[in-house]
Amino acid sequence: MPYQDWGHGYGGGWLGGLLMLISMVLLWGGLITVVVILLRRFTHPGGSGGRDGGKDDALRILDERFARGEIDEEEYERRRTALRR
Questions:
Q1: pLDDT (0 to 100) of residue 5
Q2: 30 with 37: CB under 8 angstroms?
Q3: Which residues, at least 6 apart from 5, have a Cβ–Cβ distance to it below 8 Å?
Q4: What is the mean pLDDT of residues 35-40?
Q5: Distance in angstroms (rounded) separating the CA atoms of residues 61 and 7
Q6: Are 79 and 58 in contact (CB under 8 A)?
Q7: DSSP state of 44
Q8: In this structure, are residues 42 and 50 in contact, taking their beta carbons and an 8 Å threshold?
Q9: pLDDT per residue over 49-60, tens digit each?
Q10: Closest C-alpha to 53, from 65, 63, 68, 43
């Protein structure tokens, strides 16, 4: 009985191999990108990962402005009280 190829072998030629390579690169690249974005979002210091990240940044900026003498003590206390609410 002669050998018959029913399409279950390694046929497809170089174009099939190239398409498979491109699809694997896109798949792994996409997965790695998603993991990196999630890691940056939840572990980046001062980012939006924490619940009070924005409030901490605002207090830090307020402290810096007071230290540089841009605002007086009364203004500093008023704004700090407002931020802590």
A1: 57
A2: no
A3: 11
A4: 92
A5: 67
A6: no
A7: -
A8: no
A9: 455 566 788 899
A10: 43
